[in-house]
Amino acid sequence: MWGLVFVAPLMLADYPPLMLTIGRYLAFGLIALPLGWMDKRALRRLSRGDWLQALSLSLVGNFLYYLLLSSAIQMAGAPLPTVIIGTLPVVIAICANLRSHQPLPWPKLLPSLGLIALGIGCVNQDELRLLLQANGGSAALRSYGLGALLALGAVACWTWYPIRNADWLQAHPQASPRVWATAQGLMTLPVALLGLGMLHLSQALGWPLLGAGFQLPLGPRALDYIGLMLAVGLFSSWLGTLCWNEASQRLPTSLVGQLIVFESLAALAYAFMLRGQWPSLLTIAGIALLLAGVIWALRDGARRRPAI
Length: 308
Known about the structure:
The protein is an all-alpha fold. The protein is 80% helix and 0% strand. It has 13 helices and no strands.
C-alpha cells in the first residue's frame, strides 16, 4: 500500500508536489473524522503530550516526508528515489543500533551497507543514462542530482518517524494501533486545511505558490486528482499506518525497519508497470543487491538474538 505513493506523482505529473501533499493529507484527515467518532472514547484518553506527539509525527513523517519524496520523484523519476528510500532498512537499523543497550558490532553492518550501495549505484547509472538520453544537457543532470538530494531528505524524515512512533507505541502497550493511526490522521487535517488556505491566499495576493498557470482548488484534472488522493489517503495513509503501527508494537524497531524494503520493491514494480516496460538487467542487478543487503542485515540480526 505504501508503494502507491511513489507512482501518484507520476500519474499526476502536472500537479505540483505541494498540491499532492496537501491533497493526500486532507483526504487522510477527512477519512479519520468518522473513524475518530467511532473511537472517541479511546481518543479522549490521550493526553495533551500524546496529541503533540501525534502532531510532530504527522508533520515530519507525513507532510515533510511526502513533500520531499514527491518533489524527488517528479525531478528524477520514480526508480532513483525508490531505491534511495530502499536504504531505510539499514539506516533505521543503524540508528536503532546507536540507541540500543546491546548494539550489533559495526563491522557486521558493513557487508550489508556495501551491497546496498552497489545496488543504488546500478540503478542510478541506468536511470541517469535514460534521463540524459530523453532530455540531454546539464539541466537534466541538475534535476537528477536535486531529486537525489530531496530523496535523501525524505530518508532522514522517515528514519526519525518510525523510531519515534515505535517508542510511543511500545511505551503504551495498552494503546490501540488503530486509534493511534486515526489520531495522526486527525492531526493532519488542520495542517492540510492551513496549507490549502495559504495556497488560496498566496494566489489572491498575486504570489501563487503553485505557479501562475495552476487553477485552484482542484487543478486541471479534478476527478483524477480527487480519486487518487482519496485512494492514497485511505490505503497509503490510514490503512498503511495502521498496519505499520501493529507491527511496531509487536516487533523490535531494528527488525520492523528491515521489512520496509517491500515498500521499495512494490514501488519499483508499480513504476515499471506504469512505464509499460521491464527493468533493464542493470536495474534488476541493483534490486537484487538491495535485497541481498537487507537479507544480510536480517541474518546478522537474527544470529545475535538470544534464544528464548
